[in-house]
Structures are given as C-alpha cells and as structure tokens.
Amino acid sequence: METQDVKKNQSAVVVSKSGDKSIVCQVDYKVKHPRYGKYIRRRTKLGVHDPNNQAGVGDKVVISECRPISKSKNWRLIKILEKAVIE
Prior knowledge:
Strand order of the largest sheet: 1-2-3-5-4
CATH superfamily: Nucleic acid-binding proteins
CATH architecture: Beta Barrel
Number of domains: 1
Number of strands: 5
Structural class: mainly beta
Number of helices: 0
C-alpha cells in the first residue's frame, strides 16, 4: 500500500520580497495557552518560491508545501487572493 503525499495549503500575507523569485510570507494563527486558556497570537515566517515575481508586499496569497527548492524555501506560491492597496 502506497502512502498518499498530501500537500498542505496555507493562506498568508507577503511581508518581504527577498530576491529574484523569492518572497517571505507570514502565517498568523492562534493557540490556546495550556494553563490559562487564553488564546495567544503566534506567527510563522515562510520562504516561498514565486516563479513569475508576481506577488508584492502586503498581498494575500495561497501557498502550498513542496520539495526543498533552496535552503530556506519549502513552499510554492499557488495564487494571489488579494493585491495590496498602495496609497
């Protein structure tokens, strides 16, 4: 029996354009404190491969887990949900 390789999808916000075909995204989530029960905000920054350099800072995107593309990039850009409004 073969195991299914299920890829995780996340929605995230682009916080930095860190070079050619690379972006850094931030995933925000809440976790319950083990003793007090209060929900605490946590965040994780992920290196994402953006092959067409289409995402900009502030964009809301969908990213998917993939094979390691470099030392820090294990995620791939799937689509842009919402472009950032620049004033």
